[in-house]
Amino acid sequence: MASPTNDVLKPNDPAPLTSHRKPLPALTGIRFIAAMQVVFFHFGASFALRHSSTRLLGNFLANGWIAVSFFFMLSGFILSYTYTGQIEQPGGKRRFWEARFARIYPVYLLSLLLMLPFQKHLPLGVAAAVVLMAQTWNPVHPEISGDWNLTAWTLSVEAFFYLLFPFVLPLLQRLSDRILRATLTLLLLLMVCGHTMTHSIEPMSRRFLIPLPIFRLPEFVAGVTLGLLFLRRKGTGRSSIGVYVSLLATAVVLLVFRDRWLSWIAVPYALLIYGLAAWDSKVARLLGSGSFVLLGGASYAVYLLQMPVRSWVHLALTGNWNLAVDHSGMDAVLSPALLVGVSILAFLFWEEPARKWLRDWFRRKVESKVDAIRSRTN
After folding, report:
1. Biggest CA pair distance of the chain
2. For residue 27, which of 248, 241, 223 has the smallest C-alpha distance?
């Protein structure tokens, strides 16, 4: 999510590092809403902006890309919530990286395979960078970030975060509550006033700053800090006003702002993530319902498969392999509904089985090494 990776805990997740935390179902459901915001940005923003009667809707859709920042913050929050007190265990870092690989790579690989027929002239070096999830790590050639599968660039940023997380979390854990709150405040100020989330508004800056993970790191670290504050909260709390205020503020920012000050959305995003996890509300109960949890589970596939699905629908409707040529427009209408169905199937019959198989494979590999060491010492 991050991209909408399926980081939110499930009740029956057998992972030894995560089984100590209860699930946060509302944060699963909200991922579907955020993923669809990105989908409608890609599929409908330009159409809405061309019609003056839909100007506010056009603003809302055109700002849909900012949901990527929501995923980066949510990813930091969930990883902090999940792994605090666990990452320092023997083998904790290795198991964390194995779990992340098992979580994100199967659907990532599926999206690349589905887009492969549409990539006839992809340079070998670029292809290798995308396969290795390193396409956004090159400050010299940031233009390759969207190659092969446009939305996959955010997973490259997430991979960078995952590499750093086991080292960042212990450092933040040592901070007092007061310093953590000050850190979160400073990070939010950096995002809002430094416009680290919204450089795409600057024509000369988009190419150089948007994909580079170092510029997106404040969003992730803010989420990690927010997760630690959530774990240290006193009492459960039942006030829901913060959830509704954050939703209203998010809607206002998305409807009104179309410049770099869209970065103000960092504040309601932080409040919304914390509120859905900490406070009881009708919104949290709705997002935590069975239907939304299923859709939230499928949201990672929704996010990564939107371009493959649209490309194949466009080919079926027009016979043209190039999405930018002979654009019928019907693919933008049909693709979202088909995308949701395909993503649910991918989640149930590819993502989850592949994740469990990889986790079992990693476990068996470690057990075989332990058995080999024991046999040599006996």
Report:
1. 79
2. 223
Sign, CA torsion 290/292/298/300: negative
Q: What is the model's pTM?
A: 0.90
Q: What's the burial of 57, exposed, middle or buried (CB within 10 Å: 0-12/13-18/19+)?
A: middle
Candidates 152, 157, 263, 162; CA nearest to 212 is 157
Please count the CA atoms within 13 angstroms of the CA of 24 that sit on its side-chain side.
26
Query: Scanning the structure block, which residue is given the tokens 């498969």?
Result: 305
SS (H, E, C) the chain: CCCCCCCCCCCCCCCCCCCCCCCCHHHHHHHHHHHHHHHHHHHHHHHHHCCHHHHHHHHHHHCHHHHHHHHHHHHHHHHHHHHCCCCCCCCHHHHHHHHHHHHHHHHHHHHHHHHHHHCCCCCHHHHHHHHCCCCCCCCCCHHHHHCCCHHHHHHHHHHHHHHHHHHHHHHHHCCCHHHHHHHHHHHHHHHHHHCCCCHHHCHHHHHHHCCCHHHHHHHHHHHHHHHHHHHCCCCCCCCCHHHHHHHHHHHHHHHHCCCHHHHHHHHHHHHHHHHHHHCCCHHHHHHCCHHHHHHHHHHHHHHHHHHHHHHHHHHHHHCCCCCCCCCCCHHHHHHHHHHHHHHHHHHHHHHHHHHHHHHHHHHHHHHHHHHHHHHHHC
* Residue-range domain boundaries for the chain: 25-377
Can you list the pairs that 320-324 forms with residues at least 24 positions away whose Cβ atoms lie under 8 Å?
321/117, 321/118, 323/118
Two structure tokens written together for 55? 């100007």
Residue 132 neighbours by CB distance under 10 Å: 11
pLDDT tens per residue, range 340-353: 999 999 999 999 99
d(CA 309, CA 297): 18
Look at residue 14 in the predicted model and tell me its pLDDT.
39
Q: Model confidence over 31-55: pLDDT tens digits?
A: 999 999 999 998 876 666 666 556 7
Q: Return the half-sphere exposure (C-beta side, CA atoms, 13 A cut-off) of residue 31.
A: 32
Buried b (16+ CB within 10 A) or exposed e, 367-376: eeeeeeeeee
Length of the chain: 378
